[in-house]
Amino acid sequence: MKRLLLLTLSFLVVGMIYAQKPPKGSPMKAESYLAKNELENAKAEIDKAVTLEKHSSKQDVWITRAKVYQAIAVAGGDEAIGIAMESYTKAKEIDPESNAAQLLDLQNISQFHGNYFNIASEAYNAEDYDKSLNNFRKALMVIPDDSTTLYYAALAAYQGDNQEVTLDLYEVIIEMNYADKELYGSAIYIAKETLKDTDRAMILIKQGQTAYPDHNQFKYDEINIYITLGNDEEALKQLEAAVLKDPGNSSLHIQLGLFKDNTGYNLMIEKKWDEARPKYEAAKGHYENALEIKPDDFIVNYNLGVIYVNLAKEHYDIVRDMDIKTYNKSGKEVMAKGNSIIVKAIPYIEKSTQLNDKDVDAWKALQQIYTQLKMNDKAEAAFNKVEELEAAEQGQ
């Protein structure tokens, strides 16, 4: 029994030795504890101090509190970052013109920010992008409007394939007027292509147009959004306005050509030839304008040739649907009209095969034209090329 009592008493003594006295709220004690890295004691003292009337209005007390919480944050207490910065802000508000207030940004706050920035940079170089982003974000809690930190945080998020966070950070950079044309372009691409958020993309496009009114790419991005949304009327309106503003831009003529080409094709499928023909003619005009600017464009040469093939089809379909009596009367004449149109496709389709001699569709179109016009040797050569290319594809 006595041994048990002694053991119990020894526990009581130990407990008494290590029992902490309640904090008195002494800033000097907080500083002393901080110097010894006794952070819990420093925190207890300074938290009490700022509640006392004799200390709560003193700048140096709030600076001490900021330094204590900064040390806690650096030691791993992330939740202390915000309290440290609130304390620094309070200190500067009390006497903004004091030497202490002026030195805060140069010493304490820049050191606080630099700690996280350096960790983030090292993690980025080690390709630990999650850790890098996490520490760049902590640095931003210290200096929220630092453009360099914002940019590198976005870069870390992007490299870590965190596109939602990347876009969030890009939007912060844009709101702070730090964004250049390239950053706007990247933000628009992520919103539209990666996140499939056309509303967000359109907001960014409008902001980009306001910031850089002479940068035509944002107008093209807007047009593509309208096309994606199926708003053909607005897309066409914007395209035509863009061409008038920038007539030397081959991409705009190609876009308009494609737009009207596709419309003509859909009308052709419905056999609405009276409506299809003018659309095809308009598309031809834009393709021809594009070729004047960029003559070696494969797509434009190919598409322009195909328009002539499709326009000829109207006459071939008429012949195909004729009875023998009608064919004997006017079939050859109608067929000749079709041939007079399809022959115009040859230079464009031939040019497309010269630009890309591995394109099977171009060679098939050429074979079809040669066959229709009874250019047998050329038709055979085109047929052999198709066979060769298809065999190569199957061999892969």
Strand and helix order: HHHHHHHHHHHHHHHHHHHH
What share of the residues does DSSP label as strand, in percent? under 5%
Low-confidence stretches: 1-19
Mean pLDDT: 85
Report the helical percentage. over 70%
Shape: elongated
Structural class: mainly alpha
Number of strands: 0
Kindly provide the radius of gyration, computed on alpha-carbon positions and rounded to a whole number of angstroms: 37 Å
Distance between the termini: 90 Å
Main sheet attributes: strand count, strand direction, barrel closure: none
The total of helices stands at 20
Main attributes?
396 residues, mainly alpha, 20 helices, elongated, disordered N terminus
Characterize the structure shown.
By secondary structure, the protein is mainly α. The chain is built from 20 helices and no strands. The chain has helices at 2-18, 27-35, 39-49, 59-74, 80-94, 99-125, 129-142, 147-159, 163-175, 181-194, 198-211, 217-228, 232-245, 250-269, 273-293, 298-320, 324-342, 346-355, 360-372, 376-395. Helix 7 (129-142) runs antiparallel to helix 8, helix 13 packs antiparallel against helix 14 (250-269) and helix 14 (250-269) packs parallel to helix 16 (298-320). Mean pLDDT is 85; it is low at 1-19.
Quick structural gist:
The protein has 396 residues and is mainly alpha-helical.
